Amino acid sequence: MASSTSGAPTGARTSRRPLATGWTFFAAALMIFGGAMAIFEGISAIAKNDLVVVTRHYSYSFTATGWGWVHLILGFLVALAGVALFTGAVWARVVGIVLAGLAMIANFLWLPYYPFWAIVLIAIDIFVIWALCAGMTQEADEV
């Protein structure tokens, strides 16, 4: 087996990835964008409580301010997980899938308050989960 100038065998594969590639990069960018949108959603619900139309007799009723805090905190965590995905770490991928799932559930429950924005964020979360899972299988095939 030949070795390179660094002494490591050239035929050996290394499992170390310094940066995210492919689908992980796409998911990270979407998570940062989706997290920023959720932060803005939370700020608007907290600052302008009368901006959001609240329907009556909804099963999951919070005040708009309560939902605003949920979206603000979750959006911040999603954006941080998106930044962590750029490192290519496996833990960041798992955290990203979990947080995107939680954000999808929160946006589903937010549907009666702001339907268009909630649907857009649900779609982004679906793409994030798909991209993170597709990246896992693609990397497994390469090894």
Report a brief summary of the structure.
With 143 residues, the protein is mostly helical.
* Unreliable stretches: 12-16
| Percent helix | 55-70%
The dominant shape is elongated
Strand/helix succession? HHHH
Q: If you compute it from the alpha carbons, what radius of gyration comes out, rounded to the nearest whole angstrom?
A: 19 Å
Structural class: mainly alpha
Report the sheet with the most strands, covering strand number, pairing sense and barrel closure. Answer: none
The number of E-state strands comes to 0
What count of domains describes the coordinates? 1
Report the sheet-strand fraction. Answer: under 5%
Mean pLDDT: 79
State the end-to-end CA separation: 19 Å
Give the count of helical stretches: 4
